[in-house]
Amino acid sequence: MRTLNDYFIMGGNMTAIQTADNESPVCVIPDRGILKAIWINCHTVIDATTTFDIMKNGSDTGVDATLADATADETGVELSIASTIQLEAGDAINLKSNGEQSASTTADLSYIIRR
Question: How far apart are CA 12 and CA 70, in angstroms?
Fold first, then answer.
């Protein structure tokens, strides 16, 4: 069960996660908090561990989010986040793929922020 202090933001559809430097749609944060989780639903089986740079206000935060290989098609999974990221109201966040996945795929994203 999640605390009432968590809120969820749909991150949209990220196209071509197999392409290095491809970015997801940008989401604007409505209230300050800590990025607690990123959930992803891939539309193809993931055949390699895939990392994403977590971007904030157009810059790399230096924190990666990792998607494990062998993730099943159409299965929502939580990305592993390497560190804490503090967010302020008005910050813009998104992911940038590092391109390790070989099969072409898109994915839907959701961010969980804790106030």
Answer: 23
Please, how many CA atoms are within 13 Å of residue 64, restricted to the half-sphere of its CB? 10
> Cα separations (Å) of 85 from 20, 56, 60?
22, 9, 11
d(CA 2, CA 21): 33
Task: Write out the chain's pLDDT in tens, 115 residues.
Answer: 556 789 999 999 999 988 999 999 999 999 999 999 999 998 888 888 899 999 999 999 999 999 887 666 788 899 999 899 999 999 999 999 999 988 888 899 999 999 9
Of the options 2.60.120.260, 1.10.1040.10, 3.40.50.1100, 2.60.40.60, the CATH number for the domain spanning 6-114:
2.60.120.260
Claim: this prediction has a pTM higher than 0.85: yes
Going from the C-alpha of 64 to that of each of 4, 5, 13, 55, 57, the distances in angstroms are 26, 24, 19, 9, 16
Q: How far apart are CA 3 and CA 11, in angstroms?
A: 21
